Amino acid sequence: MRNARHGVKQRRMATRPSRDKSTVQVAFRLPAAWLAEADRLADELSTDERRCSRTDALREAIRRGLSIAADKPKAKKPKAVR
Questions:
Q1: Cβ pair 40, 61 in contact under 8 A
Q2: Angstrom distances, CA of residue 75 to CA of 69, 72, 81
Q3: Are 37 and 73 in contact (CB under 8 A)?
Q4: How far apart are CA 43 and CA 63, in angstroms?
Q5: Are 49 and 11 in contact (CB under 8 A)?
Q6: Is the whole-model pTM more than 0.85?
Q7: pLDDT at position 78, please?
Q8: Comparing C-alpha atoms, which of 74, 48, 44, 55 is closest to residue 17?
């Protein structure tokens, strides 16, 4: 892919989801400490060609977490103590 402005060849980066019927916008509250973690992850994911936003980092964390949660065996319910 070439940068039209500078004519520099760039490596293809992951794209953000489009605003079409296949995506849904959500809003929810997060602990403030998670924002600092999201900022650190955004810095790790950023490259010279593309700055990763906090939102991108949270989206990536959710994607990773969902696949981990899907693979994790369900916890057994503790037996009731009588």
A1: no
A2: 11, 9, 18
A3: no
A4: 17
A5: yes
A6: no
A7: 74
A8: 55
pLDDT band at residue 6 under the 50/70/90 scheme: very low
Distance CA 82, CA 80 (A): 6
Q: What single string gives the DSSP state of each residue in 31-42?
A: -HHHHHHHHHHH
- pLDDT band at residue 32, thresholds of 50, 70 and 90? very high
Tell me if residue 2 falls in helix, strand or coil. Answer: strand
SS3 68: helix
Which SS3 state, helix, strand or coil, does residue 9 take? Answer: strand
**pLDDT at residue 15, rounded to an integer:** 61
What span, in angstroms and rounded, lies between the C-alpha atoms of 56 and 16? 8
